[in-house]
């Protein structure tokens, strides 16, 4: 069956927490309070379903947010405007099945209307090559490294330019068409652009 990416629902947070904390050392652990912080503040918090089961989730913040991650702050000190992927988690039984690519395609379709770049990090301890290769194949490149003071973990800081952003801004400015695929996801921590009543060409 196909992969469905949609906004998380509040009653699914316990399942998201379990999925995160079973992901292994490449993903920082969460507690319920931190997950609630994501649910209340993240601009983008979506899950993927495959065969009716949760297959993963992704959390993202716009650069204007007050997100307290040291990795996020590292990017904000160096880049004025970007969409930051805080974490992506794919269930172990679903890895290699296209869920990660579905998430990145969905996140890019959201971000490229609003931000000139996507940012994320990959932890370098313990077998980072598959994650670095995955991101490199998606157009990300390393712009620096950062050691998280709260964990001591070193991360490769990655960014990808979104080529469509300039065209969108020149064509529509702040008045994006009011069509469903632009309105989703509706988790708005940072202000959404004012929307017109036009239709997408």
Automatic annotation (TrEMBL):
All copies of domain N-acetyltransferase, residue ranges: 3-164
Pfam families with a match to the protein in the record: Acetyltransf_1 (PF00583)
MF terms in GO: acyltransferase activity, transferring groups other than amino-acyl groups
InterPro entries xrefs: Acyl_CoA_acyltransferase, GNAT_dom, UCP028520
Domain of life: Bacteria
Protein name per its UniProtKB record: N-acetyltransferase domain-containing protein
